[in-house]
Amino acid sequence: MLNIVFLTNSWLTSFNQPGLCITVAMLLHYFLLAAFTWMCLESVHFYLALVKVFNVYVPKYILKCCIAGWGIPAIVITLVLIINKDFYGNGSLSKSHPYSNFCWIQDNTVFYISVVAYFFLIFLMNTAMFIIVLLQIHSVKTRTQKTSRFWKR
Q1: Whose C-alpha in 14, 22, 85, 152 is 20 to 30 A from the C-alpha of 75?
Q2: How far, in Å, CA of 75 to CA of 42, rounded?
């Protein structure tokens, strides 16, 4: 959906309908955040599968992942819309972007908080999960090598 909204954004902007532009910008923002959130959920699943291998039963795991994957971005979008729906719009209407024909977030502060900071948090979480998984794999490898050396003796 992110790709579809992104590819049709310029075409939909050409209709010069402010409501349509706000909707397209909001959908683009939502699906971008949803993609980041699902990437984070994949790293959590990776952690559970490779580090917490046994005794990791989470009741209604898929439902909880879906609520987090689709709900957290919805909360961010709702907050932006509640604060000011005019944060979304056509860049060609602003003086700082006179030649852009693309519906997106118009305020730099909102962009940095709701996209860049969000991505940075997801990136930190994924990096932490990756390091933990690598350390777990390394410790399993070390234990296996020690065991095989013991049996060889």
Answers
A1: 14
A2: 20
